[in-house]
Hints:
The complex is a heterodimer.
Chain A: E1 5-14, E2 24-32, E3 36-40, H1 47-54, E4 62-67, E5 70-71, H2 76-82, E6 83-86, H3 98-108, H4 113-126, H5 142-154, E7 160-164, H6 172-189, E8 192-197, H7 200-206, E9 209-214, E10 217-222, H8 224-230, H9 237-245
Parallel strand pairs in A: 3-8, 3-9, 6-7, 7-8
Antiparallel strand pairs in A: 1-2, 1-4, 4-5, 9-10
Helix pairs in contact in A: 3-5, 5-6
Chain B: H1 2-17, H2 20-49, E1 53-59, H3 64-76, E2 79-82, H4 92-100, E3 106-110, H5 114-129, E4 151-155, H6 161-195, H7 227-242, H8 244-256, H9 259-264, H10 271-299, H11 314-338, H12 342-359, H13 371-377, H14 381-394, H15 399-429
Parallel strand pairs in B: 1-2, 1-3
Antiparallel strand pairs in B: 3-4
Helix pairs in contact in B: 1-10, 2-7, 2-10, 3-6, 5-6, 7-10, 7-11, 7-14, 8-11, 8-12, 10-11, 11-12, 11-14, 11-15, 14-15
Amino acid sequence: MEKASIIDIKHLTKCYKNADEAAVKDLTLSVNKGDIFGLLGPNGAGKTTTISILCNQISADEGEVMIEGHDLNSESDLIKKIIGVVPQDIALYPKLTAYENLKFFGNMYGLRGKVLKERITSSVSDFGLEKKLHSKVGTFSGGMKRRINLIAGILHKPNILFLDEPTVGIDVQSKNVIIEHLQQLNASEGTTIVYTSHLMEEAERFCTHIAIIDMGKVVTVGEPSALIKAYPGCSNLEDIFLLLTGRSLRD
Amino acid sequence: MWLKFKASTIKELLLLMRDRAGLAMLFLMPMLLIFIMSLLQESTLKKLEERHTPVLIVNFDNDSLGINIVNGLRSAGFFEIHELIDGKQPSLEELKKLVNYGKYRVGIIVKEGASEALRNQIRCEIQQMFPAEEGDLFSPPPDPDKPYPEIDIYFDPITQPTFKHAVSSALNEFTYAVEAKMIMGIYAQMLNDIVGIEINRSGNFKNMINLNEQYAGNRKKIIVPNAVQHNVPAWTIFAMFFIVIPLAGNIIKERESGMSLRLRTMPGSNLAVIFGKANVYFMVGILQAVFMLLIGVFVLPMVGMPALELGSSILALLLVTISISLAASGYGILIGTISTSQEQSSIFGSISVVILAAIGGIWIPTFMMSEKMNIVSKLSPLNWGLDAYYDIFLRNADVSDILIYILPLFLFALSCILASWLYNRYKTSN
Lengths: 251, 430
């Protein structure tokens, strides 16, 4: 049975002021409910711009985006309630403890009291950080900060979770904990995950669907295994990626 | 909205409480400034009051004119009178040298025979008032060719013209009094000679017109502006506006760390977060004001300075403090919004506050500025606040009197917030 789409992007275009070329050009894409969707591409391909538009961080010049049937332009506040965002930067307050940070973000999503406290406790425990709950985030390792950064985006149990390079610059153990937890979240809560990454191996293992974008356009989209079959001579996503985006440096 | 505002306020409060250096800057810096500037200006003002202005007088006359000048200057209370150097009367050259080197601010020489010369001139004047056929009224007759009495005054070269004028006026006053006394004495003597009635010639001729000096205002107790009454409100306002630097820096830090982008993805208006942040700095501004004013009232008197009197309208004081703190918070939000880096915001924020303070009369009171600078000073919101405090402390103003300052401060705060919001919208759409 075919899944219903939860994100519909049609003819999305964004050109930054004073830029020579559009960062995203006439991009059309659908993400199905319950997917773990990887948005892959070289530097400057338009991944972050696309995800930033979907998360309401910047506005598009043209195009239409529907998320769970709501128009991104006119119903952004409704959409903000059902999405969670985990930015690439560690967007936490280093002088606050993990608990204080998570309480602040929980409050931002309207959570409070006992419910919030329980969610913080259980999430922190799931990510193996219960002993560090009342320590300042500034004293944490990179992996621990990434995990708190992720928890801050899922405390309110969003229907759709956007992650921008969530595993960049951390050790294998932390990466595994994050990936496993995201898969568990997807399986148990049915959370749709949209994720950007440079790590092809991780994307191949983690994503149910991927789209490779380059120069602001989608160059291919589909299930990783189906794509590998569809491109003769390619044994993995990295081969497809290089085949479609070329070997020349982009920055 | 309320939960976001509350959460943002609590978060900001925690961050501020953990920033000891920032807190020290916000509270200790203005406290030190109040102490240092009040002590400096208090001593300067005392000098200007000339209570202890050293004056060297060489009285070669030793008659009524010289004696009256010495006694008059001594009783005026503004001068420290010296007549001898090392137990000896100094020469003219010594006097000029000592005044030139600044040991004495003023040197006065009452020349020998000055009183006699004055008597001679008075007699000449009286003689001329009578017809020539009356003959000589005085024996011996006065000599019209005799020179007028002279008093030489030497000033320290750094003396201000206003002070010179004040000293000259005081001397004129004493010499007029001596003149009047002598004229009356001579007339009394003449009457005595003509009608044979013994008249008391030692009558004390005082100024017969009373000048009632008062300060305009409805306060029963007159408050004289002093260093404390300028410096405490001035540096309090300066400190309140200095929150621009941590507030703007905080906004930029959130932007640089990706926090503001993250917050923008969350439901509800982002204004609640900004207002929560500004709310903490607004409260800090109020606390700063309370703290600094209490220092003026209770601590400065302990180090020998006059106590700050807060006026009679606490409501007016509160409203002015609130509006200054709001204006400072609004300005901080604007600087934080338009600056692209923390370095830029701290440089632009601090320089702009220092300039606004300088033109607003924080360092040098506006009444000491030129007319043109007085007009320029009205452009500074710090000046609006300072004028409002002056009115409350010195003119006993109430709420209706200070509305002309409060409204512009509120409008300034609103304009800054509106400009920040518009700028943010413009940046997001690009």
